[in-house]
Amino acid sequence: MERLPPLSPQPGETRRALVARTLREAAARGLVPQGTRLPGHRRLAEALGVSRNTLVDALEQLQAEGYVRAQGRSGTVMAAPPLGAPPPSPAPLPLSRWAQRALAGQVEEAGGPFAVDFRVGQPVPELYPERAWTQALARRAGDQPAHEDAGSLGPLATRRALAAHLNAGRGAQVTPEMVMLTGGTQSALDALARVFLEPGRVAAVEDPTYPGARAALAATGAQVVPVPVDAQGVQPGQLPAGATLAYVTPGCQYPTGVPLGAARRQALVVWARRTGAFVLEDDYAADLHHTGRPPAALQGLAPEQVILLGSFSKSLAPVTRSGFLVAPPEVLRVLAATRPLTDRFPARLDALALADVLGSGAYSRHLRRAHEVIARRQAALCAALQRALPGWAPVPVAAGLHLYLPLPAPWTEAEVLARAARLGVGLSAVGPLASGACAPALLLGFAHLPERTLQDGAARLSAALTS
């Protein structure tokens, strides 16, 4: 008995599970060798500090697993051989090349906590229409058969609502048959990358860009070619002729925030038609244009060459996991046929709730309120930065949830981030979003912070840079 490891319960672990795990570990480590006869049930239970019934339940489980063997009046003996000594040091994981490429594409930011956290990607409670969403969920949960299958594309009611929303508000050309529901933009990018890319093929991405897009495309082993971005957005003349896919954010370039003008949109479509490449249009900020109407979706110009990606993770809430993909029918047929190999079907209840929120007008009313909050907070941060850092020039954007702040010479991103962190301010840098050298700049997420906190953050940043 003295050879048994001590009982060390884990969170939520029952006494029966604890006893079973302790005896299992004793057998695996050779503390109680194979063939050892255990003490009687009453004595063993007392030694372990559990009831006899608990011990018997644990031994029955271990017998079913083959760790112990009951021998009638002869008692219970350990039946499993030890695992042997563990290796002196953990062996490296046998990662696939896909996993290695995926890990290499990750971008990590310094951890907090920060008194004022301007880092991008923060949830915004005001962008969650809780009442409308919970009512839609409750209504749909009560009237939908649990066994009804939505198919690989998602419920038709939601695809109809999305098509109407995109055609009316985004100038798109969409029918319900062109829509696939997704768990978000990242899952759509992964599916498209797996279907169209492999080693030896080429994908193009804006530079700088959303790192999740570059990582998803590069994980396939395809060559990912960065295409420079300037004050007018991506430069179509720099797109590679042999690309299969090109990832762009024409409505609001990420991270600079500039929209793509009409001439460049036309050039992008001409390039796609000439090369046969598909353009992946990430419409990430379409519903977050808080200073006017958003530009029309590029998909409306060339629905046969543009695959439109969208998500409600920012305009509703990340917890909804509601996104969509709009593609030509021949592309959608392939995606629908290959989808069951990875994530089966979209969440039906969330999808139907989304259809109700879109169709009832609740989403439009919610966006009007959210736009007021976003615009007010952006103005407050711009004013606070102009007071605190005269001579610096934050770039207000018409959409999205962050400011773009170019750094004047001789400041570097690393130096500003380090100084700000010492005074409790978290920032995001643009450098990690680019493949090559780019002008130093910061991203300041603002929509999740109240105006007083924004002003405090600007004052702290000024103190950090003048001390």
UniProtKB/TrEMBL annotation:
Annotated source species: Deinococcus arcticus
Family in the record: In the C-terminal section; belongs to the class-I pyridoxal-phosphate-dependent aminotransferase family.
MF terms in GO: DNA binding; DNA-binding transcription factor activity; pyridoxal phosphate binding; transaminase activity
Keywords (A to Z) from UniProt: Aminotransferase, DNA-binding, Pyridoxal phosphate, Transcription, Transcription regulation, Transferase
Domain HTH gntR-type: 13-81
CDD domains: AAT_like, WHTH_GntR
Cited PROSITE patterns: HTH_GNTR
Pfam family name, one: GntR
Protein's name according to its UniProt entry: PLP-dependent aminotransferase family protein
